[in-house]
Amino acid sequence: MDKWKEECGVFGVWGDPRAVELTYLGLHSLQHRGQEGAGIAAADGQHILCKKGKGLLSEVFPALPDTLTGRPYCIGHVRYATAGGDELENVQPILVRSKYGSVAVAHNGQIVNAPNLRAALEEQGSVFHSSSDSEIILHLIQHGHGSLLDKLTAACRTLDGAFSVVVLTEKSLYAMRDRFGFRPLSIATLGDGWCVSSETCAFSAVGAKFLREVAPGEIVKFSAHGVESVQYTQELRPALCAMEYIYFSRPDSDMNGRNVHAVRKASGRLLAEHDREDTQADLVVGVPDSSLSAATGYSEVSGLPSEMGLVKNRYIGRTFIQPTQDLRDLGVRLKLSVNASVVAGKRVVLIDDSIVRGTTVRRIVRLLRQAGATAVHLRIASPEIRYPCCYGVDTSTREELIAASQSDRAVCEAVGADTLKYLSVADLEQLYGKNRCCYACFNGDYPTDLCPLRADFAVD
Q1: How many whole angstroms separate alpha carbon 305 and alpha carbon 299?
Q2: DSSP-derived pairing of the beta strands 193-197 and 164-168
Q3: I need a labelling partner for 217 at 20 to 30 A (CA). Which of 162, 278, 284, 425 fits?
Q4: Where are the beta strands (DSSP E) in 237-321?
Q5: Tens of pLDDT along 152-180?
Q6: For residue 321, what pLDDT is reported?
Q7: Do residues 103 and 94 touch, judged by C-beta distance below 8 A?
Q8: For residue 216, cis peptide bond before it (omega within 30 degrees of 0)
Q9: What is the band of 432 on the pLDDT scale with cuts at 50, 70, 90?
Q10: 74-133, pLDDT tens digit by residue?
Q11: What's 400's DSSP letter?
């Protein structure tokens, strides 16, 4: 794994007879957050039906089943496997039926105390059918007391880590967010109904009007009685994952009141300001897609033209097999092509969002040189990634992170660039807000007391 793996995406609609169709459209807008599985659960006031499968949304749903359509309450999920494997039973939503009724859950994030909770629940007689964190939420509901809202409140107080969750019953929809707000979750109006999404870009696709974000530590219930909000804790430390701005989210989404494209563009401007007198270059090239906004910002400040030096093939199959180094290199060529007539004979400032292992950027630098670039100055719109994430991002071993064990100079030499510069954590705090984001993968400051990866990544 060289690039960060995308997060999962959740979407929900309450109170619209087109809920299933709208959820399908919303999930299409969130497909970048997960390509390993997709599912939809829909309710008609009496029953919940669920269909899900492995693969892209269009592979799981070549057509929407008639048994699902027409139901006015719905939740959906696109999955990248962070906790649990890629087995079908881990694909969401997860639906259970009991004497109290049916409940379906879809979850984005990772619960750091999941192993302890699972062990305790098994001691109490719970039997798990998957290895997904999401099933833990359902068992906590089953063990709770009072109304479902009471049970969810108690469950949220028990969970530690990252969770943005949508819960569906036969008649109601709930949206819940952890007390840190690690993962985004927003609410929109949809005619006389409501819509919930991991990213605001999906609201445009279904004609919904953004209302507000689900606050950290909040549960919002949508039902025939209207909208009810419960703040289940006052122990809050807002810590939206900084990688949402840097890499995960679509540029047309808004988070914490900031547009993702605008923030990325500002990061490029800041890179150029740090670079103003040091770098001799002819043009700027952004790595598609998440670095294009930063490349635009760098261009504006530096005065260098931003050119399409790299072209992304959007039709490459996602299951391309790469058993040898030669085939891996060919895979990069299939995914990214160099516009040789743009870069030949030029000194290039290459803008990328981050470096994880360094293998992909090394291949890109090599391709640029093979196309005739006379210099490649690598600029990264984030700091050095030196620590793992235990909140739902797939970095679990120190060996994966090239900057965890090598100096900037060594990384520069390893990837074949002429020069290498990053933004700093202080730069990100200036761009995103000092006390509004989680920067743990850069500085090791984990918001939660419990992080199972903390010891492995202690500073040497």
Answers
A1: 6
A2: unpaired
A3: 425
A4: 240-241, 254-255, 258-259, 283-286, 310-312
A5: 999 999 999 999 999 999 999 999 999 99
A6: 39
A7: no
A8: no
A9: very high
A10: 999 999 865 455 567 789 999 998 888 899 999 999 888 888 888 888 788 677 777 778
A11: G
What residue type is 289 in one-letter code? Answer: D
Compute the distance between CA of residue 201 and CA of residue 223 in angstroms, rounded to an integer.
24
For residue 296, the surrounding DSSP H or E stretch is helix 292-302
Rounded Cα distance, 413 and 410, in Å: 5
Are 294 and 431 in contact, with CB atoms under 8 Å apart? Answer: no
Whether 74 is a known active-site residue: answer no
Model confidence, pTM:
0.90
Return the DSSP state at 99. Answer: T
- Half-sphere exposure at residue 392, Cβ-oriented, CA atoms within 13 angstroms: 33
* Core vs surface per residue 110-138: b (16+ CB within 10 A) or e: bbbbbeebbebbeeeebeeebebbbbbbb
CB 309 within 8 A of CB 345: no
Strand 419-422 versus strand 375-380 pairing type: parallel
Residue 166 contacts residue 194 (beta carbons within 8 Å) = no
Provide the CA 172 distance to its chain's centre, in angstroms.
26
Q: At 336, give phi and psi (nearest 5°).
A: -130, 125
Sketch out the chain's domains with CATH numbers. Answer: 9-238 (3.60.20.10), 259-313+320-433 (3.40.50.2020)
- Confidence bin at 242 (pLDDT 50/70/90): very high
Query: Sorting pLDDT into bands at 50, 70 and 90, what band is 383?
Result: very high
Residue in 29, 123, 122 with CA at minimum distance from that of residue 76: 29
User: Residue 260 is inside which H or E element, if any?
Assistant: helix 260-274
Catalytic residue among 8, 50, 390, 451: 8
Contact 183, 109 (CB under 8 A): yes
How confident is residue 319, by pLDDT bands cut at 50, 70 and 90?
very low
Rounded to an integer, what distance in angstroms lies between the CA atom of residue 108 and that of residue 376?
Answer: 37
Return the residue matching tokens 């669920």.
50
> Taking 50 as the threshold, does the pLDDT of residue 318 lie above it?
no
Quote the tokens at residue 389.
């994430």
What token pair was written down for 403?
């900057």
Report the first-to-last Cα separation within the chain, whole angstroms. 24
